[in-house]
Amino acid sequence: MKEQIEQIKNLAKEEIEKAESLQALDEVRVKALGKKGELTALLRGMGALSPEERPIIGELVNKVRDELESLITNKEQALQLMELNKKLESEKIDLTLPSSKIVRGSKHPINRIIEELEDLFVSMGYDVVDGPELETDEYCFERLNLPKGHPARDMQDTFYITTEYLLRTQTSSVQARTMMANKEKTPIRVVCPGKTYRRDDDATHSHQFGQIEGLVIDEGISLAHLKGTLEVFVKHMLGEDSKLRFRPSYFPFTEPSYEVDVSCFKCGGKGCNLCKQTGWIEILGSGMVHPNVLKMNGYDPEKYSGFAFGTGLDRLAMFKYGITDIRLIYANDVRFLNQFDRKDD
Ligand code: DAH
Question: How far apart are CA 196 and CA 1, in angstroms?
Answer without folding.
Answer: 98
